[in-house]
C-alpha cells in the first residue's frame, strides 16, 4: 500500500515545519550538507569543525563541561542559561543538519525559558532546582506541552500535540531544566536501527554510514556530537544503551519505573504484561548519569506518577575496592575483536587499579533473549502494525525480518506463553543469582553488544542488552577504546572477517567488515542486581575513572 | 470419589504422629477437651484458665511481654531461651488441644535449640542475632529441614519432608530464632476459612464456633491465644490480615517480595503471573511487626533468595502528626455495625490525639476485587484441583462455591484476560493515586473486613483485604474494640440483623447474627502506598498507641 497524497502532504508539512525551526543564521552551507548521506563514510565532527557558526566560547560550553559542572557555574551566575542554551541550540541545529537526529525543535521556547531562569536566579538569589538553566534533550516519546510526539509513525501526524507533560518532564521543568528538542526513533521503536518513514535516517556522528543505534537513536547521535549534554531515553531491550555504545556516550538503564515512565506517548497496547521498559539518561560523564537519577528520585516521582515506584534514592558509599564479575563472551554470540579487546583491556586496567576482577561462568544469554522475546509476541492485537497500516506505511526491512514467533519456533501465542515467560524469568534470575552469590560481586563487566555501531540496518537483535531487560537489572554503558583495523584482526570461531556467522538465526543480519567500522567507539557494559541502581551508578563512576 | 483406605491410613498415621508430639504431661484432661468442637460457642481462653499446666512464671512469659522485650531480657540473660521456649511450647500444646491450630510439632528440636542458644550466649558473651532465643511460629507453607509441609492436602502426605529451609527460615535461624511448630491452613489456601480434610478445623480461641480466618488460620489462632509471640504468615488476598482480625492480633502484609517468599512449599503453578503473595508477621504489638520486618530486611534477604527485592530497610522518622485518610464503608459491601463503630471510634480518637483525619472518597472496591479475581482464574491447568484429586479429596463447600470465572461473568480465560488484569491494575492504582495526592495522606484507615470473625465457612470473599493485594500495597491490621450486642444494633441498608444482603453475589455466604459474634475482636486496617512498608509500620505503631 503506497502512502496517499493526503499523508504525503502531512509528511511534507511536518518536515518543512521542522526545517523552518532552525534559524537561518544557523543553517549550514550546501558544500557541507552535500556530504550528509547515510551511505557516506564521513565524520560529522569533521564537518562541524569546518563551520564558523559556533563561537569559541560556545565550543567551550558544549565540549568541556559535565552537566553537573555547568549547573554549578550556572548557580554561581558565572554563566547565564541564555548563553548555555544558545550554545546547545546552535550546536543542535548543526547536529540536526549533519545527522538528522531531531523530531521536534523548539529553540524559541527554550531561549524564552532560559531568559526566565536567568531572571529567576537574579530575583530569588537561588537556582530553581537541581537542573537550573541546563538544556536537556528528550526522546520523542516524552510529552512536552504544545509539542507533537509522532514516534516516527506517519499516522501519528494526525494526533493532537501534547496538552500535558510526561511526569518526568514536569520534574525536569520544576527542577529548572530548559527543554529545546526531541529526538528521533526507528520505525516501531522495536529495533536498534535509526530509520523511520516520517523523519528518515538518523546518522552516527562518528561515521554517517553507521547506525546511531536505537530506539533512542536521535538521543545517541545528538549527545554523541555534543548537541546535548544530558538527554533522556527509554530502554526495553537496549534502547538507551545501544545508542550510547554506538555513539560513544555514557548511558544508563535503571530498574524499571524508578525513573518515572508515565505519561509518555502510548504506542504499546495498554495492559502490557511483558518486559518492562525503563526511562534513563544518556550523558558524557558517568557522574552525570548519577546526577540525573539522583536528582529525579529526590523529587519523589511516585508522588506524581502512580506507575513510578516509591523506592527513594539511597546514598551509597563509594567502594574503594570493587568486586567485579567479568563475562567476556557467550560462545553462541561471539563478541567481535574491537569489543573483546576493549573488555580485556578494561579488566586488566581494573585489576591493576586494585579492584578484584573475577571471571564468571555466565548462563547462556540465549535463555534471557528468548525469555524476553517470548513476551514481545504476547500482543494478540499487533498494535504497532495497526499504527503503520493506518497511514499505509510498509514495515521497513529490519522490522519485517523480525519474525519473533518464528525465532521461538512457534506459530501462535496463548496464555501459557505468559506463564512460561514468568517461569523462565524466575529460573534465569536464579541462574544469575548463583553467579552473584558465589562470587559476591558488586557488578558485572560485560559486552553491551557484539560489536561497535554497524552500517545502517545491520544491528540485528540486541542480545547483550536485552537479557538485562528480561531480568530488570540496572545496566550502564561506558565508552572505551575505538575499533582499530590495525589491532582488531583476530579471527573468530574459524570465520575470517567480515564477522559473520550464518548459523546465528537471531543475528543473521550482522555482516560487518572491520574496514567499515574502523574508528567507531567501543564500550563496556556494567550490570547490577535489580534495584541496585545506586550501586551500579557508583561503580560506573569508579570504573569510568579507571578507564578514561 | 471417597478417600481410599491407603490414603486414610496415611492420614491416621499423620494425626497420630502429631498427637504423639505433645508430651503426656502437657495433655489436657477430657473434661476440658470435651468442650472443644467447631460448633461450641466456647472461649478457649476460659478453658485454658482452668488448666494448671502453665506455671505462673510461664503465664507471665507468654502473656506480658512483647517479642522485642523478651529478646531484650534474653540478651541480658535475665531469662533463658529454655525457659521461654518451654513456656511457649507448653502453651502451644494447650492451644493445639483447644483450637487444632497446628500441622507440625517439633518441641524436642526446639528445646534442644534453646539449650544451644543458652550455651552460645554464655560462651560468646553476645546473642546470636536479632531473634536470639525467641520461639517463632510458622505457617505450614514454610519449609523447615526435616519437617513435612502438607498444606492440608492429603496428597502431599506422600511428599518427602523438607531437605532445605525456606530462605526466610534460614534468616530466622541465623538470627537466633527457635522454631517449634507449623500452623494450619484451609483447603487450597484460597479461602479465608480454617478447615482442610487432613487436619480438620482450626477454631478461633475467642469463640470456637467462629472461624480463625485464613489462609494463615493456625497462625491467627495460635498467636491469638498467645501460644506464639511472633509468627509468620503469607497473604495473597488477606491471608495474614484476615486471621489477625479474626483472632484479635496485629498483622502486616508487606509489599510483595520484600520479606523473602522463596523456598516455600509450592502449590501455585510455576510462572504465576497474577497478584503476588507476600510473607509477613503476626504479633501482639505493632512494634513487633516493625521489629520483625526490620530485622529480616537488615539481613539482606536478596543475597540468599533471588526472588526477594533488593530494597533495603529504611529508617523513617516517626511523624508526630499523621495525615490519615479515612474510608469507612463501600456501599456495595456494607460494613457491619461492630466494625463501623470501631472505625468511627478510631477516627475520633486519632483526631483528638492531634492527627489529621481526612475522609476520602474511595474508588469502588469492587474494581480492585474483580481485578484480583481476574488473575485468580488464569491457571488453565487448575493445579490446585489436581492436588485435591490426586488423593480423591472433594473440594469443601466454600471452595466449591468459589466459581471465580462466574463471578466475572465469563466462562473461559485467554491471554487477553492477562492484559485486562494489568490494565485494570494500572487504572485502579491511579484512582487511588488521586486520593493519595489530593489529600497528601500518609496512610489510609479502613475496614479489613465487613465484620468480625464469623461462624465457620461463612467468611466469603475477603473484599476489604483483597484490593490491597491487587495493588501490592502494604497493609496492617490493628485489633481494636469488640463486637457488643448491646451497642451494635444499627440496621444496615434496610436489612435488619442478621447482617445479610442477598444482592451481593461476591459475598453471599455471609449470614451472621450479632448474637453469634458477640465479644469477637474488632479491628482497623492501615494501608500505605506500594514500597512504603516502613511508613505503614511506623504509622501502625503510632495509631496503635492512640487506640490501645
TrEMBL record, chains A, B:
PROSITE patterns in the record: AMIDASES (PS00571)
Catalytic center residues: 139 (charge relay system), 215 (charge relay system), 239 (acyl-ester intermediate)
EC id: 3.5.1.4
User: Does this UniProt record's set of keywords contain Hydrolase?
Assistant: yes
Specify the superkingdom.
Answer: Eukaryota
| Reactions that this protein is recorded to catalyse | a monocarboxylic acid amide + H2O = a monocarboxylate + NH4(+)
The UniProt entry, under InterPro entries, shows: Amidase_CS, Amidase_dom, AS_sf
Keyword Flavoprotein applies: no
Please list the GO terms describing molecular function.
amidase activity
Residue ranges of every copy of the Amidase domain listed in the record? 83-537
Keyword list, A-Z: Hydrolase
The protein here is known as amidase
| Organism encoding this protein | Penicillium atrosanguineum
